[in-house]
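ping. complex inputs:
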Amino acid sequence: MGNSSYTMMSHSPEWWMIFCHRPFEPSNQRLYSMSSEMEVTGCDKQTTFGEVNQLGGVFVNGRPLPNAIRLRIVELAQLGVRPCDISRQLRVSHGCVSKILARYNETGSILPGAIGGSKPRVTTPNVVKHIKMYKERDPGIFAWEIRDKLLADGVCDKYNVPSVSSISRILRNKIGGSSNPTPQTQPYENKSQVVHTPNPPIYNQFYSYSCPAPSMHPVTTPPMHTSQHHGLPQFPAQNKPAPPNANCVTPCMVRAWTASSHSVTDILSFRPSMPQPVQQPMHQDNMANIGQNYNINHYGMRPSTMAPVYLQS
DNA sequence: CGCGTGACGGTTGAC
DNA sequence: TTGTCAACCGTCACG
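pong. complex structure:
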């Protein structure tokens, strides 16, 4: 795979911040030791990690690019910078740039998908309850009819409606219909309850790499005060009410299997030209170097004429 | 030359 | 506690 191996115990976003500030180093060589920086940042002291791609950029195999880079990619694209130039400038493979921009175009989110874990179960207690109710009302009802009713009644949507076979299994195992005489255990009963929101968030933009189950307590968006979340640039929601589905703002990785609500405009609080906030995050200098090519670019992104507003961190 | 895409090796987290 | 599985990741090479 990559040009060099790495060893590290964890990939906290802090080290990305360090990477982001490192000057370019030649490719095809093992990365610099991180020990001193890690001590400074309080991260673990494992040394040397990361790989270098053909462009000289740093990446960790299997791990998403840091949000700062992802954000930067979208920002540059919005400014009309061609993907190939973004790729070269940020030293990210063009495939990755293409992927991130395509995802952004499709979902409005710059954030990576949910890594690991299992797909949320669709046969939640509520769904089972409704299936049971349908069956009681009409013992001769077919599974596909139940499926249609779940959709029609809004119990499920097209993304989380159980399959006909799942419904049949539920009828067989949990309701014990006479036509389904093979009771079996239902391994997923009372397991993770799917929180059904119209647009479940993917991650907090400053997701950490491990966190407790996120779906238990959706919370409303609090004002984002001073935060030390991993040192990534943060963006206030000032002048902008919390999006209705921004129900997870805890700094944790949230599993979601549909589109995200964490659009760039949710993360970046674009606002009309006004005095810039005092604190500027990383990469601000780079913005000055971008040609003012305010055309709709290849990805159909309208370059923003508003300045991204960053939170103090 | 720019870009989309799939294979690949890797990581992650629920089960 | 450990292993499995299926999701995701970014890079690379190809067309």
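The first helix of chain A runs from residue 13 to 21.
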